Amino acid sequence: MVQRKIVYRAPRFDVEQVVEKLQDGRELPRTIIRHPGAVVILPVLDDGRVCMIETYRVAIDRWHLELPAGTMDKGVLPIELAAMELQEETGYLADELVLLHSFAMSPGILDEKMHLFLARGLKPGPAAKELGEQMHNELLTWSQIDHMLRDGQIADAKTLVGLLWYLRYRQYA
After folding, report:
1. CA distance 92 to 84
2. How big is the CA angle at 155 (ends 149 and 157), to the nearest 5 degrees?
3. How many CA atoms lie within 13 A of 91 on its CB side?
4. Same domain, 132 and 84
5. CATH number, domain with residue 125
6. Are the CB atoms for 138 and 153 separated by under 8 Å?
7. What is the pTM of this model?
8. What is the C-alpha to C-alpha distance for residues 100 and 166, in angstroms, rounded to an integer?
9. Whole domain around residue 23: which residue ranges?
């Protein structure tokens, strides 16, 4: 049995001290960040361009090119959150949202599960950014994205996963 103790509670995550029992019987303390999960959206316009956001990230003190995303709320399904975050951050509404893949962000220290959605049939509208969301849309071709990926201009992990998954497996989407 694993012993657990919350050592810090933040608005969007908890930090938990866990004692893992090893196969040989020894106990090893671990610190885990407990996160409710998130969605990441790959918005592809009818002309093939991708709507990404350039956003300021205070944790790394720089502007970052990312796919729109958001943290899960209790009682909200991932597909519902994907639709809300897409509209809030980009202004676009999607006719179709397709779950492409779910993945673990950093399973060595974090239990966050991200759900990657493809958004198609996009219709522009007004964005409804939350307090602190400093961002604007960037509409990019796949050729531009390819160059940015190759040159290391895109560094956000969820964005790398989403773009690279789609580039490799889009025929299944």
Report:
1. 10
2. 105
3. 11
4. yes
5. 3.90.79.10
6. no
7. 0.91
8. 8
9. 3-34
3-state secondary structure at position 80: helix
Q: How far apart are CA 16 and CA 124, in angstroms?
A: 42
Distance from C-alpha of 135 to C-alpha of 123, rounded to nearest angstrom? 19
Question: Do 57 and 7 lie in a common domain?
Answer: no
Instruction: For the chain, state the CA radius of gyration.
Output: 18
Give me the catalytic one of 16, 88, 133, 138: 133
pLDDT in tens, the chain (173 residues): 567 899 999 999 999 999 988 899 999 999 999 999 999 999 999 999 999 999 988 899 999 999 999 999 888 999 999 999 999 999 999 999 999 999 999 999 999 999 999 999 999 988 877 766 778 999 999 999 999 999 999 999 999 999 999 999 988 87
Residues 124 and 50 grouped into a single domain: yes
> What is the number of other CB atoms lying within 10 angstroms of the CB of residue 50?
20
Assess whether 62 and 138 both reside in one domain: yes
| CA–CA distances in Å: residue 110 to residues 34, 53, 114, 161 | 6, 25, 11, 17
- Both tokens assigned to 173: 């989407």
90, two tokens: 């980009």
133 included as an active-site residue: yes
Asked if 17 and 75 sit in the same domain, the reply is no
